[in-house]
């Protein structure tokens, strides 16, 4: 087997890539290659090229970055059910790994992953790409867009652009009217936040669902309508503190295998796929692919 490490040098701390290469060089008998991304979305191209180069070899891919790095890697595979993929986290948010609770820390040990097991987990397939954790729009989409504009503020501290972008999304961005179709029914109105998720956490610490599962073949959704400015503060607080009594009162929620989204005015819109702004469509559809991804986990780790 050839172990392929795709490193996002812009995720995590600057020394991450050098530290990884040093650790790998000390593992006796490991057949591996390390590739660093050079620009946003480069992961997708690298995965396609590497599969062509090593066409007849058994490969295991390691995502060395955050949620967005993983999303971009997944979209490089023509058939995900043929791939083995590990998540070695170093980004600002690694939301999917929070599904592993106390075992999450073990994913930070590269040797544990190299010697790990395979478990099959669900993922989300949409009209424009696949993702591991969430498809969303509303405040978090506005926040991600603004975060890209404010990256240079990171010199003041790693969380400064992140917090500033959230405040922008709450007080400046405008809600838009949408039609939403789910297995359990149809909704319409001005969307403050919509999340269709395989996991339970969005944006690092916003927990939109409680007892989520990534092996049951269904997604969890939560839709909040018509909250702006200060009225959106309790929503953020509820998501951070997992106040489901409050969240369930002010949102539509449930489980669904499928979602369809379109704007009332027929306009184009993008969505947030695991921290990456994707597409410009007039309509989005997405569904859960049950146990369609072979995920590498440290030995003995279960969901």
Describe the structure.
This protein is 24% helix and 37% strand. By secondary structure, the protein is α+β, with helices and mostly antiparallel strands. It has two domains: 2-122 and 292-297, 3-Layer(aba) Sandwich (Rossmann fold), CATH 3.40.50; 134-290, Tumour Suppressor Smad4. It has a 15-stranded mixed beta sheet that branches. Strands 10-11 form a two-stranded antiparallel sheet. The longest helix is centred in the first third of the chain and has 12 residues, at 42-53. The protein is globular. 42% of the residues are buried.
**What sequence of helices (H) and strands (E) makes up the elements?**
EHEHEHEHEEEHHEEEEEHHEEEEE
If you consult CATH, what is the topology of the largest domain? Tumour Suppressor Smad4
Radius of gyration over C-alpha positions, nearest whole angstrom: 19 Å
Helix content: 10-25%
Please state the overall shape, judged from the principal axes of the Cα atoms: globular
The number of distinct structural domains comes to 2
CATH class of the largest domain: Mainly Beta
Mean pLDDT: 88
Give the class from helix and strand content and strand pairing.
alpha+beta
Low-pLDDT parts are none
Number of helices: 8
């Amino acid at each position: 087997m050839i172990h392929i490490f795709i490193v996002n040098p812009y995720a995590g701390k600057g020394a991450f890539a050098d530290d990884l290469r040093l650790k790998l060089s000390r593992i006796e008998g490991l057949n591996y290659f390390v590739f660093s991304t050079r620009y946003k979305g480069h992961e997708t191209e690298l995965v396609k090229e590497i599969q062509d180069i090593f066409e007849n070899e058994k490969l295991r891919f390691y995502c060395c970055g955050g949620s967005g790095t993983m999303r971009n890697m997944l979209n490089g595979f023509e058939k995900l059910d043929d791939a083995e993929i590990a998540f070695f986290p170093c980004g600002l948010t690694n939301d999917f790994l929070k599904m592993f609770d106390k075992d999450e820390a073990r994913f930070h040990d590269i040797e544990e992953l190299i010697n790990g097991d395979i478990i099959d987990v669900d993922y989300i397939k949409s009209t424009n790409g696949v993702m591991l954790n969430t498809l969303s729009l509303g405040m978090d989409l506005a926040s991600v867009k603004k975060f890209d504009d404010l990256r240079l503020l990171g010199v003041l501290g790693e969380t400064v652009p992140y917090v500033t972008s959230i405040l922008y999304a709450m007080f400046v961005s405008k809600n838009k009217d949408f039609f939403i179709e789910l297995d359990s029914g149809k909704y319409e109105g001005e969307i403050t936040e919509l999340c269709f998720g395989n996991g339970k956490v969005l944006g690092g610490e916003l927990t939109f669902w409680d007892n989520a599962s990534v092996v049951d073949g269904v997604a969890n959704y939560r839709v909040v309508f018509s909250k702006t400015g200060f009225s959106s503060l309790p929503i953020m607080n509820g998501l951070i503190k997992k106040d489901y009594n409050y969240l369930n009162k002010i949102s539509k929620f449930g489980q669904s295998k499928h979602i369809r989204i379109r704007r009332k005015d027929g306009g184009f819109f993008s969505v947030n796929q695991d921290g990456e702004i994707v597409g410009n469509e007039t309509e989005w559809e997405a569904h859960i692919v049950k146990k369609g991804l072979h995920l590498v986990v440290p030995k003995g780790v279960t969901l």
